[in-house]
Amino acid sequence: MIRPPRRLPLPFLLLCVLAAVPAWAQGPKFATFPAAALPEDLPITVRMPQSAAGRPNVLGMTFGGLLGAVPGVVAGALVGYEIDRGGRCYSDEWCGLWGALAGATVGATLLIPAGAHLANHRRGSFWTGVGWSALVTVAGWTTAIALESGEVLIILPFAQIVAAVAAEAHSTPAPAE
Length: 177
Description:
0% strand; elongated
């Protein structure tokens, strides 16, 4: 007997939505301390932490990469399927599958770094993200072929998101002090 999936509680869903909100949209942050409150003869030098305004927002870039992954995989799979099928294959039930997999991979490889780059306000290097995403793609497909298992391809978009966000964060210039 097939059971319907259990629904997630509403507070959990709200927390997930709130966690995806970028830090800049969560309200003002009071990171500075008024200098008038410090005694004049303070024996230790106090250095206030750097403002988060210029640093890359990793959570926002991850969410942007995830938002880029969905249309990348779907559109790439549709285009790859149509190219592979080519209007000539009607008897084989697996017709178009390899084209759909290849198209989904290419779409994700390009749109995941694009989503992370746009979420970072185009401050980093888009092409560095594409390069690292492509390296992860090649490694994932090589592993899937070597193990003769397609299960590795399931985690491939998530590994591409990690690579694209890391490349984008690393290529973002440091904020001016």
